[in-house]
Amino acid sequence: MASLSPLPDAEVEDSNAKPTDRKRAGARPQSARGDAPAKPARSPAPKFPVATIFHEPWWLSAASDGAYEEAVYTADNVVIGRLPYLRQRKIGWQTALVMPTMTHVLGPSLSADVPSGERGRSLRRFTISSALIAQLPQAGHTWFALHRRETETLAFEAAGFSTGVRFTVEIQPSTPDRLWREMRDKTRNVIRRAQESLIPQAIDDPALFFEFYQENLRQRGIRNHYDLRIRTNMVAACLEHGRGRILVASDATGSPQAAIFTAWDDEAEYYLMSTRAPDSGNGAISLLIWTAIQDAAAAGRIFDLDGVDSRTNHMLLTGFGGTLRPRYLVSRTSTGFQVAQSLKTQMTKLRGLKTR
Fold first, then answer.
1. What is the average pLDDT value for the chain, to the nearest integer?
2. Alpha carbon of 333 to those of 84, 85, 95, 153: distances in Å?
3. Which of 137, 157, 246, 279 is such that its CA lies 20 to 30 A from the CA of 193?
């Protein structure tokens, strides 16, 4: 693949409220140097609630090819609640409401203007969320992973949804020294070894990142089932808005050994994608994550390692310190969709037997 060039150094809820249904079409921070992390630069207040980067209209449009829709709740002509979703046609012409590509959390995005009392706040959020859920079109299957501000699933449960939980690791911004001390010894050791032979750098070409990604899958004999065009456009949109970075670890010859992609909003930075050469070693990815953690801390952002799986990445991600946080899941599936899904699974198994 072509060489990966670094970025230039210079680029551096009330009685008048009502639900409304509508459809929307769709400088890299320096590492911390002082004793305390800098406060994040806040974006101008939006005209509607945006809980995370995944609720931004530009993100949703790029991630869905402009096909996302959203339920909206207004009060005095002001939007105070939104619930974006992507409508898809699935097996047996069943409809599914899901989150767009690379959108790792979503759910209701509500205005911060809520009653000061805890009871009033909970009731308001329940009322608005229930109204948003009621606007969702009929579907055989609906599924959301809720963002960190959505810690109640009562409105979804009242609407017949099942709930579950996964966990992620969040690292609060702090000084580099403290962040380093809070990591597991083994994690620090693999980072030290990687620093001896690898140099982390930022690049600004999504095509090069995905070329490297595809090549690494090819060498492992793995087929990529993702929509590469949408993912490339998604990463490009993040870079264009100054809300994401690609970090690459290269060896002494300039050959890339590993790469990661992260994206952020004012509150948190999310570790979304990674890839490494088959012979690169585990330290390459750890070095890049450590680099991204420092940059996020320098900007005053939480670093979200975006999902812990006890079967695969638990030891890797918890090695960076931080705190395990719950991420709530909500889903509602019709009997018809379950039957169609079962039939599809059986047909897939039969085809597999016939081709052996």
1. 83
2. 18, 16, 10, 16
3. 246
